[in-house]
Design a protein that fits this description.
mainly alpha, two-stranded antiparallel ribbon, 1 helix
């Protein structure tokens, strides 16, 4: 089965990025939206800014955020 962009999806699954009304992470109403760098969540711009800060902190700690792109979780920075 394929979504409307031709990407394969599992049965019953759909990619609803443009249909969502609320941020998957904080549940605020979406005025703007972006895909999470780390997960498949649709997130608001506030949550995106938090991810940018996380990526900046990762770089400071010698971690490469690109290694975690699409990993499915928010990395813990120690």
């Amino acid at each position: 089965m394929r979504d409307k962009w031709g990407r394969p999806v599992e049965s019953g699954e759909s990619w609803d990025f443009f249909e969502k009304s609320y941020c998957d992470r904080c549940r605020k109403k979406l005025d703007g939206r972006i895909m999470s760098w780390f997960t498949d969540e649709t997130i608001c711009l506030d949550c995106s800014r938090k991810e940018d800060l996380l990526k900046r902190e990762m770089r400071k700690r010698g971690m490469n955020p690109s290694d975690y792109e699409g990993c499915g979780y928010l990395p813990e920075v120690k």
